[in-house]
Amino acid sequence: MTIGIVGLGLIGGSFAKAYSDNDEHKVLAYNRSKEVIQAAYNDKAIDGELNEGNIKDCDLILLCLYPQLCIDYLTKMAPYICKDAMVIDCCGTKELICQSCYPIAKQYGFTFIGGHPMAGRHFSGYAYSTKTMYNGASMVLVPEDLNDTKSIERAKKLLSPIHFGKFTICDYDRHDAMIAFTSQMAHVVSNAYVKSPTAKNHDGFSAGSYKDLTRVAWLNETMWTELFLENKKHLIKELDYFITALQEYKTAMENDDAETLKKLLADGKHCKEEIDGITGE
């Protein structure tokens, strides 16, 4: 199988290393930085550079750039892609890219499916990519037609060398609504939390809960700005829920209302138990 990978950051680099671990696969890659391309050559993660001349040989093309850059790349390269190929993007939001790329694929006769590998690391960039990053992780697939089982099964087969643990199939609106809660909210809250002046003096007073809540405050502000704004419809809705809940805790404490505060805390604990399937006493 020949795989084309567009973008050799953490996501694309990890795909390249995983596929190249099997000699049966040929990996071609495009990356703006020639230093990264050379590093991938040195690691034997790629077999060549992806271009207009050889993209037609690819069975699978993975778009691993920021959403708008993925759209721009596919718009430019679509005329050279084989009609038997499948293109899957790996962006963090789906509405914009799916609405843009479904028509491009239809025009040129190849298959496009939205994708989102649910895996990552604290640091970004090719240097931090690993061949095992996706082992056991979930891969979200967003086909244009949820009943297109042929394309869905083909995507799963093309991705099988990556060893995902689970595939989740949904439309782009459901994907973006869920990601607003499970990923984007966590980044917003963490990033805002560390802005407290008290954070500068945390050393000696912090343990696991502080580390858990602040882990994703360190982020790529360029990428997350694009993702937040693309998904603001769903993210603002989640922020409204959160701000309302915080105000309830604040009001209870301002009023020394122990009964209400205890109920709010119990409600949150019960929500966590229900989510995780924990049976309380």
UniProtKB/TrEMBL annotation:
The keyword Oxidoreductase applies. Residues 1-281 form the Prephenate/arogenate dehydrogenase domain. Keywords: Oxidoreductase. It holds the Pfam family PDH_N. Pathway: Amino-acid biosynthesis. One of its GO terms (biological process) is tyrosine biosynthetic process. GO terms for molecular function: NAD+ binding; prephenate dehydrogenase (NAD+) activity; prephenate dehydrogenase (NADP+) activity. Belongs to the prephenate/arogenate dehydrogenase family. This is Prephenate dehydrogenase. It comes from Wujia chipingensis. InterPro entries: 6-PGluconate_DH-like_C_sf, NAD(P)-bd_dom_sf, PDH_C, PDH_N, Preph/Arog_dehydrog, Prephen_DH. It comes from the Bacteria.
